[in-house]
Amino acid sequence: MFKDKDGKQRFAYKLNVFGMRAEDWYAQDYGPTSDSPTGIRNPGRYDGVNIYGDENVTVNNDFSNNLFDRRTYPGLGLFLRPGYQESDLVDYGTNNLKAGLSLHYKVKDSLELIASSNYSRGSTVYQGENRYRLENVQFYQHKLELRKEGTWFVRGYLTAEDAGDTYDIFTTGVRLQEASGLTREWNIRYFTLWETYIKPQFIATRPGYLTTQQAQQQSITTQEGYDEYLTGFVNANLDFFTALHQFAADSINRQSTGLISPAYVVGTERFQEKLEEIRSKRFTDNGSLFFDRSRLAHTMGEYRFKPAFAEVIVGGSFRQYMPNSAGTIFRDTGDVAIRNREFGLYTGFGEEALGGSHEGHRNPAHGQEPELRCALLPCRQPGLHTKAGPHLPRELQQRHTEPHPGGPIPLLQCGPRNSAGQCGRAIRGGQRQPDHH
After folding, report:
1. Per-residue pLDDT tens for 341-370?
2. Which of 4, 222, 326, 417 is 20 to 30 Å from 57 by CA-CA measure?
3. Domain-wise residue ranges, the chain
4. What angle do CA 202, 204, 209 make, to 5 degrees?
């Protein structure tokens, strides 16, 4: 704080800086999701909580629905692609830097000019409707205010954000899986291998297995009876069939044909190069990267009249939302620019009561309750409306003592639809959560 030549306080500043670095909890719950079509003991695998790319998204991978399929493909049942564990796709490091600077200048003894700026950046893993890696996310907020304490004020804010290198973890796993071939093509090679190679091998070598002819010799003469025998045989040899399914998946993942290329194996240079390629390309370019440089402009003002009978308060505000996601979050591709506007007005008054020992704001429409104000509520501009964004991690947000102009602009509310046609996937039904959430 600095004083002028007359000894009066004239200028002051405030500076805050905060930094943090940590390692987040690892998502290591690999049990079946609530939407998994199979359980943990299914030889052909299941849909795991923190495994991406193993979803049941095709129709040519289930050979358990009828007698013919179960007899033609014994032990095949319903199978899924292996997928990638979340820990193979993401860095669990967390860091945050926040800084704030405000300058206060008294133009006159009762008139103050305030300029402030807040900045925050950081990286962390975030759980929304999908799982996200917030990487180098940045937020800015600038404010300019002129006020006469207890009489009036005018404020203007500008809030902006930059998604940095943020990407959708689930989509990254799906894109990485599909980069070696579409799942439906992978499935065709899987059940073909089972029928032409695996089935003849265990028919010839596995003790206790009965063909239809051998079953008839043991008085199993109906289709239903043979189906019951096959089901019991598979259940009695789950470890054996699990190993066969692993052999089938490994074999297909090594194939290189016109429609299938070798899978990207975790830990190899080839895997890392493809992973970086997907994370650096936007959704609109078949990647998993978000682009978001949205802004929010907000101005507000208030004046207090003080006639003899009461204190009358009037005020208003105006906001303009300027989303800019290049089509990765909103439908703002090409020449489409989304602009939502919002305004509001309010008024109220207070009067002294109880011999001056009590003062409160009273609105005739609301009786004698104190601190009630009548307001003309904001009315959004017709057109495209977006849902409010989720709460971001607490450590990535600035705290403000002044009235906040609406908080961070909506960010990462909804990732692109996955191949099952649903928005998001991490919670998948809301029944299971990753370990660290």
Report:
1. 999 999 998 765 434 444 444 343 333 333
2. 326
3. 2-23+92-166+290-396, 51-88+173-285
4. 65
